[in-house]
Amino acid sequence: IQVKDKKLKYRGLTYKLVKDTFPDLIP
User: Fold this and answer.
1) Is 5 exposed, middle or buried (0-12, 13-18, 19+ CB in 10 A)?
2) Rounded Cα–Cα distance for residues 26 and 9 (Å)
3) How many structural domains compose the chain?
4) What are the distances in angstroms from CA 22 to CA 4, 5, 12, 19, 27?
5) Which range marks the domain in which residue 25 is found?
6) CB-side neighbour CA atoms (13 Å) of 5
7) Tell me: the pLDDT tens digits for 1-27?
8) The pTM is what?
9) What's the confidence (pLDDT) of residue 13?
């Protein structure tokens, strides 16, 4: 469960980073 949560958190941070860097890439 911890690994899944950690991966989900990492994915969320990556999503936020990409959204902040390339706002036009993600709707």
Assistant:
1) exposed
2) 18
3) 1
4) 26, 25, 15, 5, 10
5) 1-27
6) 2
7) 688 888 888 888 998 998 899 888 766
8) 0.51
9) 92
